[in-house]
Specification:
Blueprint lengths: L13 H19 L6 H11 L3 H4 L8 E7 L11 H7 L3 H8 L9 E7 L4 H5 L4 E4 L7 H4 L5 E4 L18 E4 L5 H16 L2 H9 L18
Parallel strand pairs: 1-2, 1-3, 3-4, 4-5
Helix pairs in contact: 1-5
């Protein structure tokens, strides 16, 4: 699992540093609205995730950086599992264009190829620098994608990619770990308020056609519901 690296942002050139942070920020914003993070938190998150891009060659010339985006059509037993999931997790060209308007450092320095499943995976990955996907074929990846420097998995975990025996030196793998924290917090708050206000009983009574008044006090400083 140590063949690939989660690294630091290059420090030799301040422009390189800003450039890499902008790429990371753009990818995060598209999927999970990371612009709501404070600038400091977002920068620290990206700095902790990325580095050695110059060593891997991504900053060694002036050619555009190519990003291959692999969307998945929904299917039973695979992500996304339904049409609604496909709608919400699809990354489009419009998503990139809107995001890049806020990232002038990289706006004119990348090209994006939007793909579905594996329709154009091998041909497009032959000259791609970055892969954004939930899952992808890992067999012979180095041969298929000789220029690949960075893979960003849009999931919070990387279970679909295990085992990581396909990783190779200087290939960076990142994911969206921690992205569910706000939603999980909202879910927890919702559950506490529903219990406090007898929502399970109200739903059961409605199902049984019993209309009984249930009163509750403000939750205040209660420690037990």
């Amino acid at each position: 699992m140590d063949k690939g690296k989660v690294l630091r942002v290059p420090k030799k050139n301040i422009n390189d540093r800003k450039f890499i942070k902008s790429i990371g920020s753009a990818v995060m914003k598209m999927q999970f609205d990371a612009e709501k993070m404070s600038i400091k938190d977002r920068d620290n998150h990206i700095i902790n995730k990325l580095s050695n891009m110059e060593k891997g060659g991504i900053l060694k010339n002036n050619k555009k950086i190519k990003i291959h985006v692999k969307n998945n059509h929904w299917a039973p037993g695979i992500f996304p599992t339904d049409a609604e999931g496909e709608k919400n997790f699809t990354i489009t060209k419009v998503d990139f264009e809107k995001t890049l308007e806020k990232e002038p450092e990289i706006k004119d320095k990348i090209e994006v190829f939007i793909d579905w499943d594996e329709e154009n995976f091998s041909s497009s990955m032959s000259n791609s620098d970055i892969l954004v996907a939930w899952n992808f074929p890992t067999s012979n990846l180095k041969k298929i994608a000789p220029n690949l420097k960075w893979i960003h998995c849009i999931a919070a975990g990387i279970k679909p990619l295990l085992p990581l025996d396909w990783m190779y030196e200087n290939l960076v793998l990142t994911n969206n770990s921690g992205v569910h924290s706000k939603k999980a917090g909202e879910y927890g708050l919702m559950s506490v308020l529903m219990l406090q206000n007898y929502m399970p009983k109200i739903i059961t009574n409605k199902k049984n056609k019993k209309f009984v008044s249930l009163f509750s006090n403000p939750i205040g400083e209660k420690q037990l519901l």
